[in-house]
């Protein structure tokens, strides 16, 4: 049996990825802030939401299409922006871009992607949104936003929940840094995972590709604390397309964002990777919906692991959701074939759940 065929759920993908990846890489992808109670809180909150089965309804023809910014996405879930995806496997960024093109869903292209933003939107056939971190004095951030706009991006995601990079002890124990600093511990880690190491050696060390241009330097730990509402207004003035603000769990913040003219809010606690004590993101959805009203677009990420989770988030008033690390696990486990298999599993889980609750469509 090939490795992709061994994936029957996102947890299978995670287990297979854990066996293949160096410890430091797996813990970078999988880890959360502090002692990781925040990540557990995300999962517990989703697990506590029940879906009510309904019977004797004709659910033979079901659709997973979802309207999104005036277009139709083939799935109500897209690909969250994730930094340094090529650590999971060389070429992972482009695997995700090809999937986005095939499924007509948004691919979040991270500021710290391993592949230049211009290449990502080309391979995604336009189905790409650029995710921006404000850092330092903002000079480089605004240059990146302008560069993304020039490359044809229609949607900008501004991530606002990382004023400082969260402390994730699993990363710290391994001495994880970008770029890698290879000491005895890291050398042993790589030696014990030869398949990943040989593939990565052949492909070349993953880089923070969007900073490989004159005038740009990247420090992953650089403070992002100087961003303010004035910064957001300046970005709103600059950006001519859709502006999404990601990392919101507070209803008052959400209402002010709406008043500042953003086009959508992404309710998220960053998968509990930044603040261990943050509230479960799914619990924030209802409060924020009450604040911004029924018609304002709300997106969601944090803790999603299955198609049933997607339906739960949509039922909690999200208009669209995004998967993150589970897609990297599928790639690490079985490459592009593994990614497609998990994507199909998530779709099948959602379609089955829709039938169980007596519905044929999501809206």
From TrEMBL:
<feature type="domain" description="FMN hydroxy acid dehydrogenase">
    <location>
        <begin position="2"/>
        <end position="363"/>
    </location>
</feature>
<feature type="binding site">
    <location>
        <begin position="324"/>
        <end position="325"/>
    </location>
    <ligand>
        <name>FMN</name>
    </ligand>
</feature>
<dbReference type="InterPro" id="IPR012133">
    <property type="entry name" value="Alpha-hydoxy_acid_DH_FMN"/>
</dbReference>
<dbReference type="GO" id="GO:0004459">
    <property type="term" value="F:L-lactate dehydrogenase (NAD+) activity"/>
</dbReference>
<feature type="binding site">
    <location>
        <begin position="81"/>
        <end position="83"/>
    </location>
    <ligand>
        <name>FMN</name>
    </ligand>
</feature>
<comment type="similarity">
    <text>Belongs to the FMN-dependent alpha-hydroxy acid dehydrogenase family.</text>
</comment>
<keyword id="KW-0288">FMN</keyword>
<feature type="binding site">
    <location>
        <position position="28"/>
    </location>
    <ligand>
        <name>glyoxylate</name>
    </ligand>
</feature>
<dbReference type="Pfam" id="PF01070">
    <property type="entry name" value="FMN_dh"/>
</dbReference>
<dbReference type="InterPro" id="IPR000262">
    <property type="entry name" value="FMN-dep_DH"/>
</dbReference>
<feature type="binding site">
    <location>
        <position position="110"/>
    </location>
    <ligand>
        <name>FMN</name>
    </ligand>
</feature>
<keyword id="KW-0560">Oxidoreductase</keyword>
<dbReference type="GO" id="GO:0010181">
    <property type="term" value="F:FMN binding"/>
</dbReference>
<feature type="binding site">
    <location>
        <position position="133"/>
    </location>
    <ligand>
        <name>glyoxylate</name>
    </ligand>
</feature>
<dbReference type="InterPro" id="IPR013785">
    <property type="entry name" value="Aldolase_TIM"/>
</dbReference>
<feature type="binding site">
    <location>
        <position position="159"/>
    </location>
    <ligand>
        <name>FMN</name>
    </ligand>
</feature>
<feature type="binding site">
    <location>
        <position position="131"/>
    </location>
    <ligand>
        <name>FMN</name>
    </ligand>
</feature>
<feature type="active site" description="Proton acceptor">
    <location>
        <position position="270"/>
    </location>
</feature>
<feature type="binding site">
    <location>
        <position position="273"/>
    </location>
    <ligand>
        <name>glyoxylate</name>
    </ligand>
</feature>
<dbReference type="InterPro" id="IPR008259">
    <property type="entry name" value="FMN_hydac_DH_AS"/>
</dbReference>
<dbReference type="GO" id="GO:0005886">
    <property type="term" value="C:plasma membrane"/>
</dbReference>
<feature type="binding site">
    <location>
        <position position="168"/>
    </location>
    <ligand>
        <name>glyoxylate</name>
    </ligand>
</feature>
<dbReference type="GO" id="GO:0009060">
    <property type="term" value="P:aerobic respiration"/>
</dbReference>
<protein>
    <submittedName>
        <fullName>L-lactate dehydrogenase (Cytochrome)</fullName>
    </submittedName>
</protein>
<dbReference type="InterPro" id="IPR037396">
    <property type="entry name" value="FMN_HAD"/>
</dbReference>
<keyword id="KW-0285">Flavoprotein</keyword>
<feature type="binding site">
    <location>
        <position position="246"/>
    </location>
    <ligand>
        <name>FMN</name>
    </ligand>
</feature>
<feature type="binding site">
    <location>
        <position position="270"/>
    </location>
    <ligand>
        <name>glyoxylate</name>
    </ligand>
</feature>
<feature type="binding site">
    <location>
        <begin position="301"/>
        <end position="305"/>
    </location>
    <ligand>
        <name>FMN</name>
    </ligand>
</feature>
<feature type="binding site">
    <location>
        <position position="268"/>
    </location>
    <ligand>
        <name>FMN</name>
    </ligand>
</feature>
